[in-house]
């Protein structure tokens, strides 16, 4: 059972994906964390992330390993735990530039496909291009949406005390970059089920997705 969950930032992809995977005994992969990890490695190794050629040259260098237990997802870069550093504002501000570089996408997409193929009971993979590009044959594709206000309020809540309107602007900027890039932009697959989470609780979204998975089994 391969479940692809795509959508813009702040729609509840991570919380939903982890809860669905835990409930159904599936593995879980956060593909955004992989793009964040490669961005963090570039920043800490002095690569100019606004120079696409330099990013392309370095794309194959870091060793990125994702742990796929939904109750304890992990990410290491060259053997170092990167789960904290990949969430900094600096990485968040630069990740769209790095993830737009085709060599980066080719590298990370390869990793994602091998992780999905090795999952013993199936996997929930969350991202931006999972249903369209990474796993186009997924058994179920979900596209989560929510109003920009709801997304900004959720993200600002996670960042404890962050300004909602600044968070909204940053989020819209990142989504625009992600959906307008040339190589596998953020997009809803034609056969994806769209779920608007604006008025739903996390539990309601999880129940909705679990029901859709069970219908496919
Ligand atoms: O999901 P998260 O906000 O952590 O993703 C960080 C960034 O990684 C996105 O803004 C996007 O630039 C990139 N990304 C991507 N393709 C994916 C997942 C994430 O380009 N499948």
From TrEMBL:
- Annotated ATP binding lies at 7-15
The record's listing under SUPFAM superfamilies reads:
P-loop containing nucleoside triphosphate hydrolases
Compartments (UniProt record): Cytoplasm
Output the superkingdom of the source species: Bacteria
Q: Which reaction does it catalyse?
A: dCMP + ATP = dCDP + ADP; CMP + ATP = CDP + ADP
Q: What is its EC number?
A: 2.7.4.25
Q: Which Gene3D superfamilies match?
A: P-loop containing nucleotide triphosphate hydrolases
Which CDD domains does the record match to this protein? Answer: CMPK (cd02020)
Name where it mostly resides. Answer: cytoplasm
Alphabetically list the UniProt keywords.
ATP-binding, Cytoplasm, Kinase, Nucleotide-binding, Transferase
Keyword Transmembrane helix annotated: no
Q: Which residues form the Cytidylate kinase domain?
A: 3-214
Q: What class of enzyme is it?
A: transferase
GO molecular function, one example? kinase activity
What InterPro entries has UniProt attached to this entry? Cytidylate_kin (IPR003136), Cytidylate_kinase_dom (IPR011994), P-loop_NTPase (IPR027417)
Cite the HAMAP family for this sequence: Cytidyl_kinase_type1
The record's family statement is: Belongs to the cytidylate kinase family. Type 1 subfamily.
What is the name of the protein in this document?
Answer: Cytidylate kinase
Q: To which species is this protein native?
A: Streptomyces tamarix
Query: Corresponding gene?
Result: cmk
